[in-house]
Write a structure and sequence with these properties.
By secondary structure, the chain is an alpha+beta fold. The protein has 2 helices and 16 strands. Among the domains are: about 50 residues, OB fold (Dihydrolipoamide Acetyltransferase, E2P) (Beta Barrel), CATH 2.40.50; about 110 residues, Nucleic acid-binding proteins (OB fold (Dihydrolipoamide Acetyltransferase, E2P)). It is found in: Cytoplasm.
Length: about 260
């Protein structure tokens, strides 16, 4: 019987100890809440959490704005043959071509530079492009020069402003349609990358003529250094290297007037 009494007293002692510990925990919490220093620390932690939450909310729109900035498109109006960038900066996109490290426009319109994709293109502004007809005056780039003809990529039609031509394709200027006089060497009249103003004389075979005074090369670049050629003392001269070249010039050379 003595042993049983001892065991009961030990169990009761353990329960009392547990109740004491539990009670002391609540008392400590109460004291902490009443302690001004502890309350200040809790307030600082709460304010820090709220501040972090606000910062996270702000980061999302800032990230969105950064993505939009990367997609930002710059616009600039250009004519066929204008330089719109270099291969070191961008990749050539729609409405452009590459030559000697430079990217040129093949059409009249607005330059689009996509910083995210690192590409440059030229976009025409018209949704309803005009159709080429006989006797139209067109502007285009010389993309190939052969023994008896030059090939031109048509970019615009006079009288239709910035509107892109509907499926222009490649037109040809035969050596017999360069001047009214006899032309011995076509290389003295036209060169690669020249911007020409020409008249459509045959719509079926897409043949052009630059024989008239107001027709011919409107802008050209130096075959040696690639700089734009300027008229100086009646000659076509490179202002950078001094090279003199020959072309069948339009009366509007260098003016940009179609």
């Amino acid at each position: 019987m003595k042993l049983r009494g001892i065991i009961i007293r030990i169990r009761n002692k353990k329960k009392a100890t547990r109740r004491k510990i539990k009670g002391s925990s609540k008392k400590d919490e109460k004291e902490e809440n009443q302690n001004p220093k502890t309350k200040g620390q809790q307030k600082e932690k709460r304010e820090a959490r709220e501040k972090n939450t606000e910062n996270l909310k702000k980061e999302k729109p800032q990230k969105h704005l950064k993505e939009e900035a990367e997609k930002h498109i710059e616009e600039q109006f250009v004519l066929p043959g204008d330089i719109v960038g270099t291969n070191e900066e961008y990749e050539a996109g729609e409405g452009t071509y590459t030559l000697r490290g430079n990217i040129y426009s093949t059409r009249t319109g607005n330059v689009e530079i996509d910083r995210k994709k690192r590409s440059v293109s030229v976009r025409a502004t018209s949704e309803l492009p005009p159709v080429i007809k006989k006797d139209d005056i067109v502007v285009g780039n010389v993309v190939n020069v052969r023994d008896s003809m030059a090939l031109v990529q048509i970019a615009a039609i006079k009288g239709h402003g910035e509107r892109e031509v509907n499926n222009p394709g490649i037109a040809a200027i035969h050596i017999s349609n360069i001047k009214e006089d006899y032309v011995k060497n076509i290389a003295n009249e036209l060169a690669l990358m020249d911007v020409v103003k020409a008249k459509v004389i045959d719509i079926d075979s897409m043949r052009l003529s630059i024989a008239a005074k107001e027709l011919g090369v409107m802008s050209a670049v130096c075959g040696r250094c690639g700089e734009a050629l300027a008229i100086e003392e009646g000659k076509l001269k490179c202002p950078a290297c001094g090279r003199i070249e020959k072309r069948k010039l339009s009366a509007d050379y260098g003016t940009g007037i179609i």
